[in-house]
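Checklist before submission:
- one chain only
- standard amino acids only
- sequence pasted in full

Submission:
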Amino acid sequence: MQKTGIYNEIRGRDGREINETYRDGLRTLFGVHTHGYPNLFIMGGYQASFQFNLTFMLCRPRVITSRMHRLRRDHGHAEIDVSPESEEWWVQEVIAHRGKTTRNQDCTPGYYNFEGEFNRRQDGNYNGGFQRTTPI
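Returned file contents:
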């Protein structure tokens, strides 16, 4: 059963389907990119920032990924992938600044709350400040 809201079959570099990768908890960088899935960018997904200006929050990753693809192309690289270390740094940021709502308990089962399952520590949205200096 799909539990992430990602219903297309997406296979990474090692052939693993993305829902299998997320089975033990989401692992992304900025809620946009997952290690082992080069050149795949998911906009507005889990672990992304969920702020009051949703239009800005959906447009900002587009700007960043456009710049990343330009750098990739300009430097002659075929793909962009995130390191496991960068992914882990972001997972810890999400855990430290995740939303403090009862949405998962209150919402009827659906992909927003993993079909009613307990919400793992890193499976929420990032609710810290958006303009941050990152070590990446």
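Reviewer check: The mean pLDDT is 76.
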